[in-house]
Amino acid sequence: MTRLDRLDYVEGSRLLARDLGDSARNEARWQGLHVSQAHDTWGVATGLGLTFTPSQRSVVVGAGAAFDCKGQVISLASPVALPEPNEVVPGIAAPTFDVVLGRNGPRWEATGAGPGQAGFGNRVRIGMDIPLGRYIRMPWGQLVGPDSGLRKTAHPMTRPKVGFGLTPAGGLIWMPSNGTIRAVVDTSAAAFSSTPRYVAWIATRPDMSGLIGPFLSLSSFYPDRFTVRILAISTLGDSAVGVQLSLLGRAAAMRIAWVGIESNAGCSSNPPGGFV
Questions:
Q1: HSE-CB for 30 with a 13 A CA cutoff
Q2: Fold classified for 161-262
Q3: pTM over the 0.90 mark
Q4: Starting at the edge strand that comes first in sequence, how are the strands of the sheet with 130-137 ordered?
Q5: HEC states along the chain?
Q6: Which of 37-41, 140-144, 158-162, 167-171 has the highest mean predicted lDDT (pLDDT)?
Q7: Average pLDDT of the chain to the nearest whole number
Q8: Residue ranges of the domains in the chain?
Q9: Is residue 265's pLDDT more than 60?
Q10: 112-142: per-residue pLDDT in tens?
Q11: The predicted structure's pLDDT at residue 245
C-alpha cells in the first residue's frame, strides 16, 4: 500500500491476513510521517545504552527504541551482546569502531581511522543507521569508550510552543513596590515545561488623567508565572506614595494580555552528511 487511507472493518465481513497487514503498514506509515514531518527528528528515543562485557572486548546494547530519518521505529525488546570487532584496519594501530543501529539490529562498523578522526565508515547510512557510540580498539584487543559525542538522540518538538492569556478584570492582586505596583500573572494553564520568553501589554487601560503612563515592565520569569510592574508619573506634582495609591485605585480595571514562547530543545535534526 502507498495510499494514506484509514482502514475500517465492517461487521460480518471477512477479515483476511492481507487486511491486517495493510492496516499495520498503513499505521506505521502515518506514524513515520508524524515523527519526521511534525517533530522533524530521528535518533534514540529511549534506552539503547552501551555497557562492556566482562572482558572489555565487546559491548552489550541495552533494550530501547529509536526512530530512523523516515520516522520508522527500530526497537530492541531485550539487550543484544555484540561480538568483538575483529575487522582489520590497515595502518591503524588503535582503530575506532562505531556501534550503529539499523533495521536489522545493532552492529559494529569500522570508521577506517584512528582516535580523533571524524566521519563514519563507508557502509554507514546516516539517518537510516543510528550512531550509538564510538570505541577505540587497543592493540591488545580491549576497547576504550564509548565516545558519545556522535550519538544521535531524538529530541522534542522542534517548533516553539506558544501560550497566551488575558487576565480577567479584577483578577490580579496588586501590591505597592518601590514606587511601582506589581502583580503576579498566572500562566500555568499554558503548561510550559521550561521558562518561556514572555511578552505582555495592557489590554484594557483605565482613565489615566493626572498621570503619565502607565508604563509596564516584566520580571521574575518562571514556567507558570511572571511578575508585571506598572509605573506612572504625576502631572500634578503628587508624591511617589500618592502616585502608587492612584495606580492601586485604577489597577483593578486593567487587564493584562500576555504571550509566552517556549523554545525547542535538543540537537539539530540534520544528520552528519545529510539524509540518505
A1: 10
A2: Immunoglobulin-like (2.60.40)
A3: no
A4: 105-110, 96-102, 130-137, 143-147
A5: CCCCCCCCCCCCCCCCHHHHHHHHHHHHHHHHHHHHHHCCCCEEEEECCEEECCCCCCEEECCEEEECCCCCEEEECCCEECCCCCCCCCCCCCCEEEEEEECCEEEEEECCCCCCCCCCCCCCCECCEEEEEEEEECCCCCEEEEECCCCCECCCCCCCEEEEEECCCCCCCCEEECCEEEEEEECHHHCCCCCCEEEEEEEECCCCCCEEEEEEEEEEEECCEEEEEEEEEECCCCCHHHHHHHHHHHHCCCEEEEEEEECCCCCCCCCCCCCC
A6: 140-144
A7: 81
A8: 43-147, 161-262
A9: no
A10: 888 877 788 889 988 889 999 999 999 999 9
A11: 80
For the chain, what percent of residues have pLDDT higher than 90?
29
The grid cell for 35 is: 515523527
- Of 109, 58, 98, nearest in space to 80 by CA: 58
What pLDDT does 86 receive?
A: 87
In the structure grid, which three cell numbers stand for residue 57, read together? Answer: 572486548
- For residue 252, the model assigns a pLDDT of 82
C-alpha–C-alpha distance, residues 99 and 271, integer Å: 16
